[in-house]
Amino acid sequence: MKEGSVNKKTEILIVEDEREIVENLRILLTEEGFSVCAAANRKTAVEILEERGADLILLDLMLPDGSGYSLCSAIKKERDIPVIMLTAMDDEASVVTGFDLGADDYVTKPFRPMELVSRIRNVLRRSEKRQMRYMAGNLSLDVQRAYVEKNGKEIYLSPLEYRLLLIFFQHQGEVLGRNRLLEEIWDIAGDFVSDNTLTVYIKRLREKVEDDPAHPALIKTVRGLGYRMEG
Ligand code: CA
Description:
Radius of gyration: 23 Å
Oligomer: single chain
Number of strands: 14
Largest sheet: 5 strands, parallel
Number of helices: 8
Helix content: 40-55%
Bound molecules: calcium ion
Order of helices and strands: EHEHEEEHEHEHEEEEHEHHEE
């Protein structure tokens, strides 16, 4: 789900209509190794997000064509891009509203450059952890907590079943050969693992995660090749 491309710079979208602030931020963030683009209003921001997305958004609350609040809730409804609000209004109410709408943090203008950078890095770190969550159909797996949910309810897997499921999630859409799966689980299953036992483990896993284990919709058999988890 998440590709760890080492060379790709983190892209920050600045949504702010005050040109001077934008230029200062652009210099600061570029020096810090981020890739930066800017939108002076909501319309442009939405266009940029639709076109190429962003890894984090710095969002001014007072924009010429509307408030940053509603843009924030619109962004959060569609995808989990971290948002830091830039606000001149440091009263409690506006901050609380921002958090209610899903903002990850806020910074009051004028801000200290290094404080902003450190907040950006914190928010990015938190969001990365949050995103270590895999989903397929009505099933989800939270890597941090080793927690598996089906239809919103926790399901209990043995360590081996969990490992198998995690491998399938990590390679969603790919065919995984039986040998490959056996290699991945041998340290848990040890000497007992064989081609036949793998079949049994897959069967047990399907009984827990599939709606209809006799006709699996998530973990499909690819005849002669192995198994594939649907994307
Ligand atoms: Ca403004």
